[in-house]
Amino acid sequence: MPIVSQNNGFLAEFAVFPVNSENQAQLVQQVVESIESTVKQHSGFVSGTVVRSLDGLRVTSYIQWADHNSYILMQPIHNFVPPDTHLFEIFAQEPKNRELHLSPDMDGLINFGIFKMKQPQNQARFVELFRQALDMVAGQPGLISTHAHRSLDGWRCINFGHWHSLPEFTAMDNNRPFSPLFAEMLDLADNEYQKTLHEVVFTTPLQCQS
């Protein structure tokens, strides 16, 4: 199964697809077919995961690559809006030694905090604030783990959070421990916020890397 960890040395491709709720199941199937038929055939492919939001408005693929040279853009998905696709590295995680094991039958739900830098030079300062925010969130009831990603092009930061339940995530979100930092974070980046959580619907076996 795919493993999300700062220590594995892999790069991660997030492709975030917006979708109407009535078309989400179709899009999930097309993304899965693209990974199975095309993406995983490429050298350097490590794993593929597809996640859908519980509100039906998003499908996200999370592809791990051995290195930058192996990375390829997600193949076009017909009849849907092109995804927002970038290549990321994990720069922080809480707890420090916690791996996230992805599978369709895993316990808990996924939260993505997606931040779009207003300018790519903002990312370095944003990462500093993001690290502080993770320290504040650590130990919150219901939080299993969180892995912070930054895109190599400077334009994105995405938090990959794993929560026991939506009520526990909502309780934290209604009383954010990182609120003192949030105003400066929003000066640097736009927050594509969705209160919904996500579930894993597809994973590939982890490919062995020599």
Structural class label: alpha+beta
The main sheet comes to:
9 strands, antiparallel
Strand content bin? 35-45%
What is the rounded distance between the termini?
17 Å
Overall radius of gyration = 16 Å
- The shape is globular
Helix content: 10-25%
Number of strands: 11
Q: What is the average per-residue confidence, as pLDDT, rounded to a whole number? A: 93
Tell me what the structure shows.
The chain is 23% helix and 36% strand. The protein has helices at residues 24-37, 123-137, 166-174, 179-188, and strands at 3-4, 11-18, 45-53, 58-65, 84-94, 100-101, 109-117, 143-151, 156-163, 189-192, 198-203. The strands form two sheets. A nine-stranded antiparallel beta sheet has the order 10-7-9-8-5-2-4-3-11. Strands 1-6 form a two-stranded antiparallel ribbon. Helix 2 runs antiparallel to helix 4.
Question: How is this structure best summarized?
Answer:
This protein is of the alpha+beta class.
List its traits:
210 residues; nine-stranded antiparallel β-sheet; globular; 36% strand; alpha+beta; 23% helix; two-stranded antiparallel sheet
How would the blueprint of this fold be written?
Elements: E1 3-4, E2 11-18, H1 24-37, E3 45-53, E4 58-65, E5 84-94, E6 100-101, E7 109-117, H2 123-137, E8 143-151, E9 156-163, H3 166-174, H4 179-188, E10 189-192, E11 198-203
Antiparallel strand pairs: 1-6, 2-4, 2-5, 3-4, 3-11, 5-8, 7-9, 7-10, 8-9
Helix pairs in contact: 2-4
